[in-house]
Amino acid sequence: MTEEAPPGGDEVDAITESVLTASRLLVGVSAKSVAAVAGPITLPQFRLLVALGSRGPLKLVSLAELLGVNPSTATRTVDRLVTAGWAERNSNPQSRREITVGLTPQGRELVDRVTDYRRREIASIVQRMPAERREGLVAALQAFSEAGAEPPPRTSPYDAALTQWD
Amino acid sequence: MTEEAPPGGDEVDAITESVLTASRLLVGVSAKSVAAVAGPITLPQFRLLVALGSRGPLKLVSLAELLGVNPSTATRTVDRLVTAGWAERNSNPQSRREITVGLTPQGRELVDRVTDYRRREIASIVQRMPAERREGLVAALQAFSEAGAEPPPRTSPYDAALTQWD
DNA sequence: GGGCAAGATTTGCATAATGCAACCGTGGTT
DNA sequence: AACCACGGTTGCATTATGCAAATCTTGCCC
After folding, report:
1. CA separation, residue B141 to residues A47, A55, A139, B24, B128 (Å)
2. For residue A136, which of A77, A145, B40, B140 is within the disulfide window of CB 3.0 to 4.6 Å?
3. Predicted TM-score (pTM) of this structure
4. Where is this region: Disordered (chains A, B) (predicted)?
């Protein structure tokens, strides 16, 4: 089933290949940005910070759900981030059974630095592209994403900071 | 800031956004494929299998390097895969200090099943795209990847199976 | 008001992933 | 033979994860 010649197959293969190659490039850029700017933090931890940065303070369950991990994992990752001074737990006066997790100023600054770095990297790549290809890129990718039944297109700058499983 | 007009910055933002959105979609597809087809295997383990599938048997250090992990991590992940019957260690008659790691038939079959599933998912997305956008996608993405100074463009089908850090 | 079901978080337990450093063979050099 | 670089493994410590059980809060019914 991976063979047939009719109009469809080869083109699909070509697209798959090109999208994945580009995706790989991008993920590499993200990883590099984290490593370059944010010394002693792990990727899962940073991903959590990014989520908080883009959505604002969240209760633990929502956070876990957003990241696609078990609440217990979220709890413990938050523990570490709190210890490191990047996140904080705040009790919710409304219902004392839930807590909200948010960024500390240091946490936000960390996320910002990484995001800026990453944006510059990407910009430098885009600027090396032939200009006439750029519009095509945006249009085609949007069509692709729409066809893939995208979730809500959040347009926060943080959103872009780490692709992994978001 | 997502509006357009001036030549430089906004366009870069738009591209960044669209590429990342698409990338996110794709990574989701990959994860879903692994989960759907390959029950009890972790992502790092599967990633290792994919590497073996695309490059053939490798010595341990090369494998670790390819995956970007420490040799000790590779050793132990291979241990688990061997136990599970998906990979095998073979001693190299040439030099007894190196070993090569390869897929077992079961391992290859697992990778194939996931890859096929994933390809079908992507194909179904691409087929929902307006046809006239498709060529633009390939051309633009290739330009993007080239501008990003891609590593060797391996064109194996396995290559596409998991994007994460590859 | 007491009791109970449902919801939110945390803890206990077990396993995987990771990196670093130390260690053991192997192969080549001098 | 003496050394040294290379490949792989093991010991140690920390993080990441999921599942299940325990804890605390809320809301609701009788």
Report:
1. 26, 29, 12, 15, 19
2. B140
3. 0.78
4. 145-166
